[in-house]
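Thread: Newbie trying to understand structure tokens

Hi all, I'm a second-year student working on a class project, and my supervisor (Dr. K.) asked me to get a predicted structure for one chain before our next meeting. I've only ever worked with sequences, so writing a 3D structure as a token string is new to me. If someone could post the tokens and maybe explain what I'm looking at, I'd be very grateful. Here's the chain:
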Amino acid sequence: MTDTLSRTFSALADPTRRAILARLSAGEATVNELAEPLPMSLPAVSRHLKVLEEAGLITRGRTRQWRPCRLEAKPLEDVAGWVAGYRQFWDGGFDGHDEGWTSSFENLTGFIRGKDAR
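---
Reply by user tm_fold:
Sure, no problem. This is what the structure looks like when written as tokens:
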């Protein structure tokens, strides 16, 4: 099972899905409204919406025959919280943090290779 932060980053990795989220930040929209400016078929847009919905980034309502999509803030707040933990690196630069950064990177690369680098 994939954690929610990974699902969110995976959904955000695609530029089409980011464009859809940008449009939804202005308010809810139907699938047809979201598809209009995109250079792809309606089924392709629906597949992108399914990924966004599974990541919790959007919800789809039901108003008579319409199913408007709306942006959900919680997953984006989780991403912002995770990124905030690294704020020291862009606020203060990397000076003085090189040793800690190198150690963390070595641990990560060791983990990826299947070794414990600690």
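A couple of things are worth pointing out once you decode it. Residues 17 and 49 are 8 Å apart (CA to CA). The two ends are 26 Å apart (CA to CA). Feel free to ask follow-ups in this thread.
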